[in-house]
Write a structure and sequence with these properties.
214 residues, alpha/beta, 9-stranded mixed sheet
Length: 214
Amino acid sequence: MQTVSVDRSVSVIPDGATLMIGGFMAIGTPERVIDEIVRQNKRDLTVIANDTAVPGRGIGKLIAAKLVRKAIVSHIGLNPETQRQMMAGEMEVELVPQGTLIERIRSGGHGLGGVLTQTGIGTPVETGKQRIEVDGKSYLLEVALRADYALVQAFLADYLGNLSYALTARNFNPMIAMAGETVIASADNIVPVGIISPDHVVTPAPLVDYLVAN
């Protein structure tokens, strides 16, 4: 794990990368990293996240800057610019039921091929997917998701890279930290090793590649 400046952390991300980004309506999203992606003008990105936040916050900044080629998210209802770009054909949006989305990410992080779910059967969600029968019941095969980079926001990090999250920032962040080939973590507070109790470590240091210095 390396402790680096925010500009150095973002410099490793190439145009065209696939990013998993933590947060729920921008709560628990690494805003400093997002701002630096906009500043460095990283383009043609695929973003996997719960949502595209709202204008001017979190992933909404990437949308406004037209840096996202494709978004794989559970909803876009709070961001009119995402809707406009989708309707204009400027950005591809893949809508995934929220529970299915996090299970696909979890599967990717745990080395599984995917997950079976009944959610979406008989709806447009089923289009192009394999239906599998188990004990007389039909399920859709939802394939696992992984990303080139996972961008996470923690409340606490120590100098080794162990992470602890606060409140709802614990929703998507720990899962995407498992499913990213390279993990870039930003933290509200960076503390000496030993301050975070082992029982409170949610993302262990070996998963973190870059810790953004405050």
